[in-house]
Amino acid sequence: MPPQQSRDTGLPHEGLVLGYSALLALSAGFVNAVALLILAVPVGNLTGISTQLGMNTANPWLYEGHVLGAIFLGFLTGATIAGAILAPTDGLAGPRHAAVLFLEAGLLVLAAAGVEETVVRAQINALGIEQTAVQALFAAAALGLQNGMTSSFRGMAIRTTHFTGTVTDLGLILGRSRLHGIKNWKTAILATTLVLFVGGGVAGIVFGARLGGYALLIPAATCATVGTANLLQGAGRSGDAPVPQDAEPVQV
Q1: Which pTM does this prediction carry?
Q2: Residue 188: what are its φ and ψ, rounded to 5°?
Q3: Where are the domains of the chain?
Q4: What keywords tag this UniProt record (predicted)?
């Protein structure tokens, strides 16, 4: 039986996509806020990090280049791992997506443990590695995994860790609406992920100020919960529900 078709785009499971992207955007906003509060650097937006790396090349005393490099490497590594895990499937959910989410949860736990007085932090100190760089590496790799997963949805690449493109797309939809109308599901995904990312930032500051690095256990639990839901959904069918090959490409 073919996947359920969307009324205006032919894309399946609009509710699944919206719920997926909204929850993960909330989680990413939370992680980024905690990173800014504790590490003083964002870990989900490589545009600013890339600019700072360039500036640091010209003036090595301007930023901590090794921390910026760790964020860049971590995000890239996370996205690469997500791509390798999800390469065999075109589905929106399933056991492979669960594996990515469980791995993300594990990295966030390591980031939390690396910030606080734990065995993980003691091991980092014993190795003589810069603590901030390792903590940022773990958090950035977690968000790289997440963004790699949502970006791999065939026909509907969704960004959940940074929103320059999202705001651009919202502006284009508004600008074109008089002639082309507004596709409600696209607008809903764009607006919802943006609003919840901001909401995640608010929650991240509140809980980060109270819990410190342990606040990262909250998005870790969120990822683990979504991963479990993926496993349960995948257990009810023989394979991942594919996205139609003729689905309209969307960059969100």
Answers
A1: 0.81
A2: -65, -45
A3: 14-235
A4: Membrane, Transmembrane, Transmembrane helix
